[in-house]
Amino acid sequence: MLNSRIIIGIIIVAVGMILVFIPLFISLKESFVSLMYGVPLLIIGIVILLNKKEDKIEQIKQAGGKK
Fold it and tell me: Is 23 helix (H, G, I), strand (E, B) or coil?
């Protein structure tokens, strides 16, 4: 089963790739805006997909005891 991290990562990478490839078909002004949003989204999506430490749950260490 896919967890939410993989689903969101794939969606963000897909949107980023679409925004990066749009400048091939439109004028210069819109292409800069598209790249300005597309490249960071692509990078963020890749980081989300490659981040494995987020799924680990750390144990709480208690000092003393309950009061």
Answer: helix
pTM, two decimals, is 0.70
Residue in this structure with the two tokens 């750390």, named with its chain if needed: 58
Largest Cα–Cα distance of the chain, in whole Å?
67
Contact 17, 42 (CB under 8 A): yes
pLDDT for 51 beyond 90: no
Residues in Cβ contact with 44 at an 8 Å cutoff, skipping those fewer than 6 apart: 12, 16
CA dihedral 2, 22, 32, 36 (to 10 degrees): 0
